[in-house]
Amino acid sequence: MQSLVLPSLLASMVGLGWSKDNLRTADKCYVNGTYPNGSLMWPCGSVNHGEGTSGTFTMQVQQTMLAALSLGPVGISDQLSARPEDPAAQITSNKTLVMATCSEDGHLLQPSYATLLAPTLLLLALLCLLCFPPGGPNPGFSTSGTR
User: Fold this and answer.
1) Contact at 8 Å (CB) between 31 and 44?
2) Overall number of domains in the chain
3) Which domain holds residue 52?
4) How far is residue 41 from each of residues 3, 30, 50, 57, measured CA to CA in Å?
């Protein structure tokens, strides 16, 4: 997590916001992962290289909130209920959550600015460094009234 702090501060200083990709609003995995030849790659409920493809998905509301607060596109990545070539395949997305990210006419709802407090935090850090430098009290400041 610490490795994300500096890049996010720098990005916000130049006006770049963050975005969240792959928003899953469905409740579970519906279709097993397969190779192009149709053989099974991984079934629903398994773990593939540490990434669960499984059973039930959690935190859909929180993930939707993050997507709506980001400055990037909202990429809905829910599965169909069957393979795409199956005419009976249904969309499994939670319509209520998907529509919470856009207006009725489909325009994406986004904040005007990135949801970061970077300028405030940087100013506070600068003031702290000036008043309390790492090497000890600042010789320019005195609590006794004399230098």
Assistant:
1) yes
2) 1
3) 18-131
4) 33, 14, 15, 20
